[in-house]
Design a protein that fits this description.
Blueprint (H helix, E strand, L loop, with lengths): L6 E6 L4 E8 L3 E9 L1 H5 L6 H23 L8 E7 L3 H18 L3 E5 H6 L13 E6 L4 E6 L6 E4 L6 H11 L6 H9 L23 H12 L10 H27 L3 E5 L6 H11 L3 E2 L3 H4 L3 H13 L20
Parallel strand pairs: 1-4, 4-5, 6-9, 9-10
Antiparallel strand pairs: 1-2, 2-3, 6-7, 7-8
Length: 337
């Protein structure tokens, strides 16, 4: 029924989403099941690691069964099992890695440990669009803001990274300051549409010619502004603050991405990660780069197992395997080569 050299099962449990997917040939999604914990963690204003780990244990087996059923496949049809082993929450990662090991051992399948950050890039391979090298990718999520050059498949050159708060983390913190709830990205983007551009202007951390990012100073500037709002002579709304903050983040991300794309003469620019779902970021990068900007649909920007399975397929093709003693790596970075 299936080409047994092409089907990879992916498992993703780096944070608060239990996700399992089956992908064919690294590009065709046969199933992509996500069991979200967002309603649980919203009560705490953020992810509670111990709670996340317990929920992953409860959701893992039914999510695997549903992903296989949705794909119309069985374990015997698989050519490999790919799993996120880092970065992420240690306890959460352990649940996924141990589940993947059990399947790989029981079915005598190759195990492929996947770097979650690198896998975000490969969500773009699942869109059906042509990918051309060399390319530049901006990965922006809750924990990472990375600018990566790829001159060929599965090889990454890290040009810039976050020095403190990542863009997604800053969105969450500012949302908390404005009493908007969790997660911060979608609520700030929605509120910012009601804001008045230029009403509030926050500083940008350019850091000279570096391609690194820093958002801690911006976060502090927003906090100080909120604390002093009662002293403002003109009325400033939360929407104005949200827009001013979003404009500051997008300005830095887009400007540095466009500059790097020009310097390295890339064929395409890709966006990836949860913050890549932000419409203002997509529009600004597209405007600054001018052409050949790709980004995944919203459902593939956030954490999902399809990107894990897709990237796992390409690693499998390159002969990369993990041993059954694979351990989690909560602080894993991009494999800069």
């Amino acid at each position: 029924m299936f080409d047994n050299d092409s089907l990879v099962l992916g498992i993703e449990t780096s944070c608060d989403e239990t996700s399992v997917a089956v992908v064919a040939g690294g590009r065709q999604i046969l199933s992509n099941v996500v069991a979200s914990q967002i309603e649980i963690h919203q009560r705490f204003g953020g992810v509670v690691p111990e709670v996340a780990s317990r929920q992953h244990i409860l959701a893992m087996t039914p999510t695997i069964r549903r992903a296989l059923a949705d794909a119309g496949a069985g374990l015997e049809d698989l050519s490999g099992v790919a799993v996120t082993y880092g970065p992420g929450l240690a306890g959460a990662l352990l649940v996924g890695v141990n589940a993947a090991k059990a399947i790989a051992f029981g079915q005598d399948l190759p195990l492929i440990g996947v770097n979650h950050i690198e896998a975000h890039i490969y969500a773009n391979w699942l869109t059906g669009q042509e990918i051309r090298f060399p390319l530049m990718c901006l990965i922006v999520s809750g924990s990472h803001s990375d600018l990566v050059l790829m001159e060929e498949n599965c090889r990454f050159r890290l040009l810039g990274k976050t020095r403190d708060d990542a863009a997604g983390e800053a969105f969450d913190k500012i949302a908390r300051m404005l009493d908007l709830g969790y997660p911060g990205g979608p609520v700030i983007e929605k509120l910012a549409r009601q804001g008045r551009s230029g009403k509030v202007v926050f500083p940008r951390a350019w850091m000279g010619k570096s391609y690194d990012f820093s958002f801690s100073g911006l976060k502090t500037a927003v906090l100080r502004f909120i604390e002093q709002m009662n002293d403002q002579s003109e009325e400033v709304t939360r929407a104005d603050i949200a827009l001013g903050f979003q404009e500051a983040v997008v300005d830095v991300l887009a400007t540095k991405t466009a500059r790097a794309a020009k310097e390295y003469g890339v064929e395409q620019v890709l966006l990836a990660g949860g913050v890549a779902a932000n419409l203002a970021l997509r529009e600004r990068v597209s405007a600054d780069v001018g052409k050949n900007v790709l980004y995944p649909p919203l459902r593939l920007c956030t954490d999902n197992a399809a990107m894990i399975a897709g990237f796992g397929f390409f690693q499998l093709q390159r002969g990369l395997r993990s041993n059954l003693d694979l351990d989690v790596a909560p602080g894993l970075r991009i494999n800069d080569e």
